[in-house]
């Protein structure tokens, strides 16, 4: 028998749109890149690479949503 869990409170979004999230990630990645040029750290390069991958992911999500909205609009 499992105990009932307390429901989590609704979360509030940190960003009002995907583009704001992408811009935030890009800004953070630029800070990491600047730090990399100062220190030439492999760890910073890996972190920068991960941030770029995050941007690519969210850009693909944004494009998919735009495509879906466009497709859905044309079907009406």
How would you portray this structure in words?
The chain has one domain (18-74). The chain has helices at 18-39, 42-74. Helix 1 packs antiparallel against helix 2. The model has no long low-confidence stretch (mean pLDDT 86). It is 72% helix and 0% strand. The protein starts with 17 loop residues before the first helix and ends with a helix. With 76 residues, the chain is mainly α. It has 2 helices and no strands.
Provide a compact summary of the structure.
The protein has one domain (18-74). It contains 2 helices and no strands.
Low-confidence stretches: none
Number of domains: 1
**pLDDT averaged residue by residue:** 86
Separation of the first and last Cα atoms: 49 Å
Structural class: mainly alpha
Number of helical elements: 2
- What series of H and E elements makes up the topology? HH
Sheet having the most strands:
none
Q: Report the strand count.
A: 0
Shape, principal axes of CA atoms:
flat
List the quaternary state of the chains. single chain
Present the secondary structure layout.
Layout: H1 18-39, H2 42-74
Helix pairs in contact: 1-2
Observed structural traits:
2 helices, 72% helix, mainly alpha, 76 residues
